[in-house]
Every structure is written in structure tokens, then in C-alpha cells.
Design a protein that fits this description.
about 200 residues; mainly alpha; three-stranded antiparallel β-sheet; 10 helices; about 5% strand; disordered C terminus
């Protein structure tokens, strides 16, 4: 459905997803083929593996290079935004934070981090399984934005440190990952609006 909608020039995505996608493009925009990146060649942050799964076959580096922004957007919606139930999270800053982290660290990791943030903040005792269902959604829609983002931020910084500890070659990505994580912490101002 999204493909036919996009081909007609009609944007049926929600305002929250459009905002999340544009913020994501700050970090993921453009073609990159960094030999040190475990994901290999990417365009708009989409790897060969992700594009191949979306298309249903093995793809070439040239196909990654030719990826359009609209197709990348559709992939992010179907593979990250929807599986993380972001459309059902009423707080835009929290939805964007979880989505962005899902792109960088994986959907299950983002889900577990969101759930662990609820637990660590003392707000809710939820099952930390990475699946954002009705119970997790209920608490994500009730928690104070700053309380959640602070707990989430701390957990992601710990994850970055652990990844680098396990593979010191990833140190080269530390500054970018940390800057990206810091921006997630600052997603909302005192009125819980996206800044």
C-alpha cells in the first residue's frame, strides 16, 4: 500500500513518523561504504542485508547506492516503526527515541531498552522481552518524558561502552553514537514538544 501511495505523491505517514524519519536522516542520510562498519555499504542507513530482505533477494552494492529516499522511508516504516508499535505511543519524543534506537541497535534491543527504562525509572514493572505490547504501551503512554529519556539514555550509553569493550575497533564510532544518543535525550523541551 505504501509503495502505491508514494508513487502517486501522496504521503499517508503520520506526522510523528515523518518527524522521526527526518531526524533519522541527520545521522543516516546518504551513501556510505565504511570498511570498518559491520553493516557494510549503506544508503539512508539501509544495509545490503536489509534491502535484500525487503526485496526478497540478494542485492548488489550498486542497488544499495541506487536506493531512493522514498523506498528507504517505506523500509523504516515497515521494519522499524511498525514492529516497535511507535504509532501507538502517544508521546512523540518517546516514539522517536525508541524508533531511532531500533534503527541503530536493532528492534529487539530498542524494545528491551524501552522496557528496562520503565523498570529502572521505578515507573513500572514490565516484562523485558523486547516486544512492545499493550502492557508496555500503557506505561510508555503514562511516563514523564524526561524521566523516560534519562533512563533510556543511560542504558544506551552502557550498551555503547559494552560494544566497544567487546570489539575495540568500534571505538571509531563512539563519538557519533554518543552524539546521536545525546540528541535523543534532548528530544523534548519543558513542554514535551520536539525540539
Amino acid at each position: 500500500m505504501c509503495r502505491s501511495i508514494l508513487s502517486k505523491g501522496i504521503d499517508m505517514y503520520s506526522k510523528s513518523f515523518n518527524t522521526a524519519f527526518e531526524l533519522l536522516m541527520i545521522d543516516e542520510g546518504g551513501y556510505v561504504n565504511d570498511k570498518y562498519d559491520p553493516g557494510g555499504a549503506t544508503n539512508y542507513g539501509i544495509t545490503k542485508e536489509t534491502l535484500g530482505k525487503f526485496i526478497g533477494r540478494i542485492v548488489t552494492t550498486e542497488e544499495v547506492k541506487a536506493l531512493t529516499k522514498n523506498t528507504a522511508k517505506e523500509i523504516y516504516f515497515k521494519n522499524y516503526w511498525r514492529p516497535l508499535s511507535c504509532e501507538n505511543i502517544t508521546n512523540e519524543a518517546i516514539a522517536i527515541c525508541i524508533f531511532n534506537t531500533g534503527v541503530l541497535h536493532g528492534v529487539v534491543t530498542a524494545g528491551k531498552t524501552a522496557q528496562q527504562s520503565l523498570v529502572d525509572s521505578g515507573f513500572a514493572d514490565v516484562n523485558v522481552d523486547g516486544l512492545i505490547g499493550n502492557n508496555t504501551l500503557k506505561y510508555l503512554n503514562l511516563i514523564d518524558t524526561k524521566v523516560f529519556l534519562k533512563a533510556f539514555h543511560a542504558l544506551i550509553l552502557k550498551r555503547i561502552a559494552l560494544l566497544i569493550f567487546k570489539n575495540p575497533e568500534l571505538k571509531r564510532f563512539e563519538k557519533g553514537w554518543t552524539r546521536r544518543t545525546d540528541r535523543l535525550l534532548a528530544l523534548a523541551d519543558k513542554n514535551n514538544r520536539i525540539v
